[in-house]
Amino acid sequence: MRAERVDHPVDHDQAVDTLRRSYAAVPPGEPVRLAKRTSNLFRPRSAPRTPGLDVSGLTGVLGVDPAARTADVQGMCTYEDLVDATLPHGLMPLVVPQLRTITLGGAVTGLGIESTSFRNGLPHESVREMDVLTGAGEILTVRPEGEHADLFRAFPNSLGSLGYATRLRIELQPVRRYVALRNIRFSRLEELADAIRDVVAKGEWAGEPVDAMDGVMFSPGEAYLLLGTFTDEAERPSDYTGQDIYYRSLRRRTRDALTTYDYLWRWDTDWFWCSAAFGVQHPVVRRFWPARYRRSDFYHRLVRLEHRHQVAARVDRWRGRPARERVVQDVEIPLDGTAEFLRWFDRHVGMTPVWLCPLRLREPAGLGSARAWPLYPLQPAETYVNIGFWGSVPIAEGAADGDVNRAVERAVSEAGGHKSLYSDAYYDRAAFDRLYGGETWRAVKDRYDPDHRLTGLYEKAVRRQ
């Protein structure tokens, strides 16, 4: 069965030709960047000297095939637009990252995660094939097997250093109208870890099926596991796009329900809890703050303006307050070490709340085991917990900016974990290559970008180029 076309057909071939022409126009030796309006990076970069790649025509859904449960999607399509195209068919991507303007190509080349990751892994694990613009200027179709399987395996976490996805075919899963939620409180982190282990093994909790699982830690003595079940029945689904704030509800509700659409974006309205930095959680401010601006991408634009103009930093200096270090990270910690790491984090960093999202590499039917992804080498059959913390801390007297992030990196490595690279990284080259598949990356880089026109992975992630 052929995929159904979406309501607004896209001239994909023309969009790809436009992209290739803009790539050819970048002078040799100049950095290659995407010209895109939104970004979910927290890593400042050097200013480009040349126009970015024209990806303006690569933002759509090419088709949805309800029978095969697949979608063909352009690389710059946001998950917001993708979900709008799949939900009318009763389908959703296997993993929908929690922020609306994350793009499918960005989630595959830069990683993504959400509450279905304990059973479906990461977004790149549901990709069946991709068309990739390589550093050599070619458009190649890459699949798990075949001539270009090496590029397929190395693409996740390559951050555009090996090419850019122009089209992706992904698997979809059936979904129902609502998500029923149970918010389970734990006063001991070991008990929370045991509960995660139990849900992963059985797919249920207290006799009820679990289709989605994430959590929040407010302190080592107060953490919640949020268990979701797809259902077609819900008496009074909640609405957290208005005055109510989702993460605050966890402390007062043991049961909840949301429409599936609202569940997928439950964290986006307040950027998890980070909207508090702009006063949006104050009842009076919230009443007059336009709903169209209660979105993660708008808050991120405000952050970028602050990075550029340093208004808050100047006010802090004027008031005699210490400078602050940005600590914005998502890290994967093996389940057995999660409680210990969270206590270390509470003692040495002290930011709360933090997000908890269990993760296991996916085991596709027929393979018998999970695929290996060398640039982000998680262990098959190992349960991890993604721990997300986003904010800033005062720079202690005598310390340097970056010291807290370096301490986090050491603690993550000592715990046998990994951290994603969308934000600040401080590794030296040898440690980075060891942690992020440097040998594999160089071999694939030399094959598909022999002139090294695309900025290297280390240069992007650590040197901010």
Automatic annotation (TrEMBL):
Keywords: FAD, Flavoprotein, Membrane, Oxidoreductase, Transmembrane, Transmembrane helix. It is found in: Membrane. Its EC number is 1.3.1.72. It is a single-pass membrane protein. This is Delta(24)-sterol reductase. GO terms for molecular function: Delta24-sterol reductase activity; FAD binding. GO terms for cellular component: membrane. InterPro entries: Diminuto-like (IPR040165), FAD-bd_PCMH (IPR016166), FAD-bd_PCMH-like_sf (IPR036318), FAD-bd_PCMH_sub2 (IPR016169), FAD-linked_Oxase-like_C (IPR016164), Oxid_FAD_bind_N (IPR006094). Residues 1-175 form the FAD-binding PCMH-type domain. PANTHER family: 24-DEHYDROCHOLESTEROL REDUCTASE, DELTA(24)-STEROL REDUCTASE.
